[in-house]
Amino acid sequence: MTIEEKQGSDILINEIAEDKENTAPLNPEPKAKEAVRQIPIHKLDMKRLIELDACTRCGECLSWCPVYDQDSRENLIPRRKIMDFLRLARSQNGFLSWIMKSDRINDSLKKIIGRICGYREPTKEQVDEFVFNLYECSTCGQCEVVCPAHIDTVNLWEELRRLIVRAGYGPLEPQKALRKSVMTYDNPWQQPRAGRTKWSRRAKKDNLILEEPREIQKTKGKVLLFFGCTASYDANVKQVAINTINILETLNIDYGVLGKDEKCCGSVLLRMGDPEYKRLFQENIDQFNSLGIETLISSCSGCFKTIMQDYPKIGKLNFEVLHTVEYLARLLKTGELTFSHPVNRDITFHDPCHLGRATGGFDAPRMIIDAIPGLNLVEMPRNREYSRCCGAGGGLKAGFPDIQGRMAQRRIKEAEDTGAKELVSCCPFCYQGLQVGIGVSGSSIVMKDLSAHIAESLLGYDVFERAEKEAEDKKREKEAAKAKKESEAKREPEAKKEPVE
Ligand code: SF4
Ligand code: SF4
């Protein structure tokens, strides 16, 4: 385009813009206000309604919320979430809202009544902001521990999320992929169902597991090991599944797994307020009950909490539910588990929210750490019920990855300050979440699942280190054999040469 042509086109664009300005109406109609859909508050039971009124606005939750620690917007702390929800609920329910919605009362009277009673119709923007704040929470339960009014906050947030989803406002856009994946593939990681057992075939081939997991349908074992989606699909977290299998095999436990029939526990749906969780819970309950098992164990704190605490609200379980560390701590007490090989290391321990605060499982992991010779625990200042959340749960990682990364970094800093070389937890979700913090902060601390230390002390070696060493030895042998072959091939023609007279 020549300069003249360019100038011509600029003039044309300016003319079109001016034309538009000239033809635009002088007093445009205000954009129609988007109607706010009804939040079905009538679905809340009396306990929740009382809890909403019980908040004394003391603000204790503000000092403890790990999300607020990284995003200091007061609107996301429990106190404000409760206030904003109540304002929304009151504006949509009760006598005043009935007056405001009634066709029998004229607009000027409504205006007067509204002004006298301080009535304000909620706007779509206000609802959107409340929804955003409600989901900016990892459901870690820290506010519940410190709340002097004893508000059962985690269950309250989950119920409010369910109301929000029912009204068509939740979950947040980035969280919808998790839901879709659970509905399509029975796992939140968008992986095909057939891939659920792939890790075990690979692990056997790589000599990482003593035996491939036994299928409970065939063994009729009394203990069902529920892996959960994260340990089954995430290549970085497969060590949890591998070590758990090695522990159970070494202890000769009468266990079994569901294999390809294992499905997501549904935790992710429940935490995000999706009503589909009920269907998934019921299907799993029916499947578990049909197995005739006595105990279900899981090395995932999220699955454990969900099956142990949330499933019974939907249906009866004919078996007990334990986290693997609790099951092993019990064997330790009865003398069926003893550790003989030392694991000489200084570690610090991160209590997973779903094992610790949610179910009180603080002692079992510490009992095991204490029993492993050589393992030295250096506690972080925030431990047990005050353990600082890594941010991986409650849909926060999917909805607010940046906040989760900062929360994990904060926890990593605390772990580093103890001087320990390893950060240990017992949850694949925490493992994943804290790894983010290690990656972002470039920390040299090593993330481990407690199952790794248990397996190492039982076997006398770390299966991953051994497999790595074996692979290196094999590679060296192969290279040596190749070098030998090459030097022999070189020598051969020389030997065949006629001696020079
Ligand atoms: S559950 Fe945790 S993240 Fe959510 S509001 Fe309470 S303290 Fe904050
Ligand atoms: S700690 Fe409990 S009572 Fe106090 S402001 Fe927070 S939610 Fe309300």
What's the number of structural domains? 2
Structural class: alpha/beta
Strand content range: 5-15%
Task: Please give the order of strands in the largest beta sheet.
Answer: 2-1-3-4
Measure the end-to-end span.
85 Å
Helix content: 40-55%
Instruction: Estimate the global geometry from the Cα principal axes.
Output: elongated
- Tell me the major beta sheet: 4 strands, parallel
Number of helices, counting only DSSP H or I runs of 4 residues or more: 24
Give average pLDDT, whole number. 90
What's the count of strands? 8
Q: Compute the gyration radius: what is it?
A: 30 Å
The unreliable regions are: 1-28
Bound molecules: iron/sulfur cluster
Structure commentary:
With 501 residues, this protein is α/β, with parallel strands linked by helices. It has two domains: 41-170, Fumarate Reductase Iron-sulfur Protein, Chain B, domain 2; 178-459, no CATH class. It contains 24 helices and eight strands. Helix 14 runs parallel beside helix 23. The radius of gyration is 30 Å and the shape is elongated. The N and C termini lie far apart (85 Å). The site of one iron/sulfur cluster (SF4) has 14 residues, from helix 3 and helix 4.
Quick gist of this model?
The chain is of the alpha/beta class and 501 residues long. 54% of the residues lie in helices and 6% in strands. It has 2 domains: 41-170, Fumarate Reductase Iron-sulfur Protein, Chain B, domain 2 (Orthogonal Bundle); 178-459, no CATH class.
